[in-house]
Amino acid sequence: MKVYFDSAATTQMHEEVIDAMINGMKEKFGNPSSTHFFGRESKAEIEKVRKDIAKYTGVNASEIIFTSCGTEANNLIIRSVVEHLGVERIITSVLEHKCVAETTKEVCSKKDLELLLLPIKKDGNLDFETLEKYLKDSPKKTLVTLMHANNEIGNIYDIEKIGKICEENQAYFHSDMVQTLGHFAINLHELPVHFASSSAHKYHGPKGAGFAYIKKGTGLKAQITGGGQERNLRSGTENLHGILGMGKAFEMANQNFDNEIKKIKSLKKYTIKKLNQAFPDIIYNGKSADLEESLYTILSVLLPFHDSLIGFELDLKGIAASQGSACSSGASKASAVITALHDASVLKATTPLRLSFSIYNSEEEIDYLVQSLVEIAEKQKARNQAKEN
Fold this sequence. Notes:
Elements: E1 3-4, H1 15-27, H2 37-57, E2 64-67, H3 70-84, E3 89-93, H4 98-111, E4 114-118, H5 128-137, E5 142-145, H6 159-168, E6 172-176, E7 195-199, E8 210-214, H7 229-232, H8 240-255, H9 257-278, E9 283-284, E10 298-303, H10 310-316, E11 319-320, H11 336-341, H12 344-348, E12 351-356, H13 363-388
Parallel strand pairs: 1-11, 3-4, 3-5, 5-6, 6-7
Antiparallel strand pairs: 2-8, 7-8, 9-10, 10-12
């Protein structure tokens, strides 16, 4: 039996998405920058997807810029804000994805900018009082970059509140929304956010396609220069079939939120029940076990035994899961996010595991997962007893 519980890293593409991409590759091959019929036809397809995404997110089509992924979208935004908007300081947190964490470190180091990290509470939530204090204590022009939902522990953050704090203090606000756009109905126009990012492969679309939301009038400029594609914000021949696949995936997600959320949330609830029965001492990271305050797609735990090879052992049983984000899924130690939430003594006696679900999972698969974890725990206990003897 092969089971996939790593949808936060990437999702299985819908058949309809694959069909849309194949049809695009067969029928729409012109360079979108060419002025002849074939080019105009390709360009029209791209603009249709842009308008559709803009419609679902409540923004102007000109505010949607296609990229290759969420990482590129985040880099475009952060680097351009620093380069062109006169930012003197960045406020972020240890919760951010590596593409934000590493980019902010690099640009602050190169430009000699101040970099401030918000304290994290033990439940994985952000300290809004400190954010207000940081912004009010200094007149420095600031970029605040905080994700909408964490990709490891699943906590959902109040970006409306963050945005209002930023507005009150004339700060730019960027939110990595890779784990939420395509999973929830989100009207970007109604949120006090200047910039956001999305990646198609997180909601059953193709890898290699994503988009940045860049609020009109903010003054960002390209980081990749050349032919001036994407409204002079991202040069390079567009990934036409990737954009078509992303458009189809985003359309399907927005038309099926209610059914998908209901099904996946039910699977997550079932998993919590089964894990509690098998491991009464299990620890849930952050708000992960709260069905209302965390992503319905993610469940992050500390198993009540220490096994640095848990990912490998699950893989041998045909189960795909991770110990953190996809960037650190092969790591044998807890990620920066998990480390920030727990004492070293707790981490030494437990094993982090992230399970992430999609509509393609079933209760039968969850039963197999939990039974496999019980078997691994028993083997680990036997190994420990052998060492003591």
